Request: fold
Amino acid sequence: MVIVMRAGASQKEIDAVAARVKADGFGTQLVQGTERTIVCVLGDGRPVDQHKYDVMAGVEKTTRILQPFKLTSRTASAGDSTLQLNGARIGDKQIVVMAGPCSIESRTQMLETAHAVKEAGAQALRGGAFKPRTSPYSFQGMGEEGLQILAEAREQTGLPVITEVMSSEQVPIVTKYADVLQIGARNMQNYELLRSVGRTRHPIVLKRGLMSTIEELLMSAEYILSEGNRNVMLCERGIRTFETYTRNTTDINAIPVLKEMTHLPVILDPSHSVGKWAYVTAVARAGVAAGADGLLVEVHNEPDTALSDGAQSLKPERFAELVRQVRDVAASIGRE
Ligand code: PEP
Ligand code: MN
Reply:
């Protein structure tokens, strides 16, 4: 249930409502909108006596949330959530393009690619230092040395950096270097990891699991929000279907569905969605047309030599063309 306070309700009234919720044995979370505050009542399914709160001073109304995801639902927010990333704001009018290599492989590779994506108009830089590989014998990432290179790339380009965190133990080291933490598809239901990143205040990219439903994605986001971190963006990255021609199947439907169900920003990773560079730009255009707030794109200075995901990585000049096309699509639907 949420308790929507009146616009202009005093802090004393808000505190009194929150205190009563706690006294009744429920958890609370306050959502500060621009006009009003929402007090979220978090319980274990026990019935809440709604009317007792309806009559309290400063309360406008109480609303039950019927979905299993609560803080993630639109009911628990005063509007679309936006997420500040340096100069860019995700979830706002502008489509935020984040790009870079799948893995950080060397200083030269990372810095060259970083400057190229910045030049092409990317607003954030990606690069994995801890890689969730299908085979234990494949390149596993450079670890902390990779994070240091990523930090240098941030310094040189001014772009905020995104990198994957694979376990709770890695959270301190990754938060030390990165601006945005990525939870990979394979870890979408690693609930302990979700709670750990929920205790940070870093923006999180939560990728949809390969075999996960939209509702399961939202329930995973709920774990992060329930720990107090509301800075979450959801990422569609393709799901497994019977089709094997492309690496995964882009669930374009998920974008408008998620935008309806949740206040969180929604982004698309067209690279893992298709697995082949030749289709990345077309699917990126489709994602933006469907309402995505941002894109996460793999770009490599020399895809032929990449240690991971070279086949789906764009060369810098092709990425620059993607950015141009995506901005045109954005303009045609009243975005930037
Ligand atoms: C990645 O971003 O390089 C990655 C491993 O993505 P996913 O978790 O979506 O497979
Ligand atoms: Mn990858």
